[in-house]
Design brief:
The protein is mainly α. The chain has 14 helices and no strands.
Length: 274
């Protein structure tokens, strides 16, 4: 039996390794292509490994465009959206999980219903509201529609419902108010969930392309996903420059995941759902 299990484990590891290798191929191709010249990529005769590795694509990204400004724009909006989403999700989830009020079930159903509506459906009315507020070509146009996440509220509610009511009542008896109770008791217990939600939110905000493309026309207000369009020429695409920009755009997401990977995995495994 031990030999069979060992053999089966080897097969599983081999399958997972092959699957991981297949998923990593596009990223490896992207990084290696960023080190090629544009002519070598267009010719397509050099194979995967660059014949004469060069950092010209990266130099072009920083020389011909305000890429650092775009990085700060994306970083600022992504951090604000992530922090706001975690705050509103935790607070709203706590209210739905541990408080009773009239219309609670109906309101929660309405929040869940918004999860089923694609953003493309509400894109036009959202744009009209943004224009009415005078936020076109303003980074707040990216932030405001993302301050509250229905998925985050749902996830927080499911986790907080698992916290024993007796624990909260004991804290109230010791004189803890609702905000102190939320900060000192609830937040530490749902930290794995907040970590997972924070990474998801940051990644989605960082990679958001469609909405910034619609509301941002000023070059100084652009975010990094729009850089891929900026470096596309009218008659010719500088593929090495586009690949270099793509590598630079991907790096912050990888760094964030590596820093919080333990909390991220723990948050995914602790579903908190009944």
């Amino acid at each position: 039996m031990l030999h069979r299990r060992s053999a089966w484990d080897g097969v599983v590891i081999l399958v997972l390794a092959v699957a991981a290798g297949i998923m990593l191929v596009p990223y490896a191709w992207m990084v290696l292509s960023s080190l090629k010249s544009n002519m070598e990529i267009v010719a397509g005769t050099g194979g995967l490994i660059p014949r004469e590795p060069s950092l010209e694509g990266y130099r072009t990204v920083f020389r011909d465009a305000p890429f650092v400004t775009w990085l700060f724009n994306s970083l600022g909006t992504s951090i604000v959206i992530t922090v706001a989403t975690l705050f509103t999700s935790a607070l709203t989830g706590y209210i739905f999980a541990k408080h009773q009020f009239r219309g609670k079930k109906l309101l929660f159903i309405l929040i869940l219903a918004t999860m089923m509506i694609p953003f493309q459906v509400i894109m036009i009315p959202t744009y009209l509201i943004t224009a009415e507020l005078g936020l076109i070509n303003n980074l707040m146009a990216i932030v405001l529609p993302c301050l509250v996440s229905s998925y985050g509220v749902f996830l927080a509610k499911q986790f907080i419902e698992e916290i024993p009511q007796e624990l909260l009542e004991a804290a109230r008896m010791d004189g803890a108010g609702e905000f102190k109770l939320m900060l000192r008791i609830v937040t530490p217990l749902i930290l794995p969930m907040l970590s997972a939600l924070g990474i998801f939110t940051f990644m989605n905000s960082w990679n958001n392309y469609l909405w910034p493309l619609i509301v941002l026309n000023d070059e100084s207000k652009m975010t990094v996903p729009l850089a891929l369009v900026y470096f596309n020429g009218t008659h010719m695409v500088n593929y090495n420059v586009v690949m270099s920009a793509a590598v630079l755009i991907t790096l912050p997401v990888i760094v964030v995941f590596l820093i919080f990977q333990k909390q991220f995995i723990k948050g995914l495994t602790m579903t908190g759902m009944k």
